[in-house]
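Issue 218. Parser rejects a valid record. Input:
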Amino acid sequence: MRQVIGILSMLLGMVCSMNAQELNVIKLVAPAKSGGEPLMKVFNDRKSDREFAPDKLNPQDLSDLLWAANGINRADGKRTAPSCRNFQEVEVYVLLPEGAYVYDAKEHTLNLVATGDHRGALAGGQDFVKAAPVGIVLVADLSRFGGQINEQVKLMASVDVGIVCQNINIACAGLGLATVPRASMDEVALKKILGLNDTHLLLMNNPVGYPKK
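Output the parser choked on:
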């Protein structure tokens, strides 16, 4: 009997370990890099939406969205979004109901930063944000500029974040997703949740989901 209990305990431990690993790292499916809507139609369809269906994003849509935002599109590691002198200082954080993650473009994975639902901190008083199944937070790591942090550095980082944000907006239009670019958020709470320091600049965010019908 003790042997049976021991085996069951071992199996339970293995399952718990596997679940923990799945939570810590989400391996995204390969992005679909062909097809989709014609470019000019995507621009025509782009709009800001503040109402979202409760459905989770399917794995393909989430993968395509994050790759379009700031993924790697060349063998030399360069991105879908340009950046000042290729510093690649823009970090993409993803808030899901189960946790907050940072997007690893090289591995095309989501790496856990904090467990729990932190979309309330993203809302910044606007409750519609909490209805979106995905919240994307754009952060500029100013230390990657390699020198003194001044107003010029902050300006260039803001431009780079704006480009990634536009990638998200255009990708959402092409994928049939709803989003709205925002600057409102609880910066103090999010910095603590995401483990950011004084060299990180919180600038923009996009709640994302399927359109509410």
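Fixed in the parser; the record now loads. Residues 173 and 207 are 14 Å apart (CA to CA).
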